[in-house]
TrEMBL record:
Belongs to the peptidase S33 family. This is Alpha/beta hydrolase. It comes from the Bacteria. Keywords: Hydrolase. Pfam families: Abhydrolase_1, Abhydrolase_6. PANTHER family: HYDROLASE, PUTATIVE (AFU_ORTHOLOGUE AFUA_2G14860)-RELATED (PTHR43798:SF33), MONOACYLGLYCEROL LIPASE (PTHR43798). GO terms for molecular function: hydrolase activity. Residues 30-132, 155-222 form the AB hydrolase-1 domain. It comes from Actinoallomurus spadix. Gene3D superfamilies: alpha/beta hydrolase.
Amino acid sequence: MRVRVNDVVLYFDVDGCQLVPDGATMVERPTIVLLHGGPGADHSVFKPAFRAAAEFAQVLYLDQRGSGRSDRAGPGSWTWERWADDVVDFCDTLGIVDPILVGTSSGGWVALTAALRHPDRVSKLVLDSVMPGSAQERPAAFERLGGVEAPEAPEMAGRFDPWARLDRLACPTLILACADDPVATEPAARRLAEAITAAPVRLHVLPGTGHGVFREAPGEAFGLLRDFVTEPGS
C-alpha cells in the first residue's frame, strides 16, 4: 500500500488487526511501526519474522523515503530529522494515535530522533542494535570475532549524536543489544540505557548474538517485545 506524506509517497504493509473481538465487544490493540536499517534497506528485512508480533499487536512495515518502494525524493532530504518527521506524519495520516516505534540498527536512530522531536506522539520505543560503539570498542569486537586479520569496523555516520538530549526522552524505552555485536557494541548499549534518566528504560543484552536481536534470537526477542508492548505503561 502507498500513502502520500508531505512531498513523498511512502510504501507500507500491515500484519494483524488493530481491533479484535473480545466477547461482545471490540478491543483495540497496540500498533507497532517498524523502521528498517541501512539506510537504504527496506521493510522486507523484518519478514517473515515479525508475523509473530501480529499475535499481540498490529504491525506496520514502512519503507522510509529513499528506500524500498517509497519515493526517493532526493539526497538532500535524507536526514535523520526528515526521516523521523516522516514517521510521525505517516502516523498522523493513517490516524495512528499512540504508535510504538521499533527501530533496528540505523532505523533505531530514526525512531529515537522521532521520540526526541515529537515526545507527545510516541507512546513507547524499542531500540534494537542501535548505538555505535566507540572507535576503540568496534575494532576490538571485530578482532574478537574474526581474529587479528579481521577488517576494521566501518565508521558510522558521525552526524548522529543524541547524547546531550537523551535526558529529555519521555517515553518508556526497551533497548535490545547483542553481546557480540561488532558495531553497536554492548558497552554502548549500556551507556545509552544509563543516559535515559527521565523515562522508564529496560536493557536486555542477549549472549551469543551478533547484530540485530530479532534476527539473531527471535524467540527471546519477541518474548521481550510482547511483555513490553502489552504491559500498561511499561
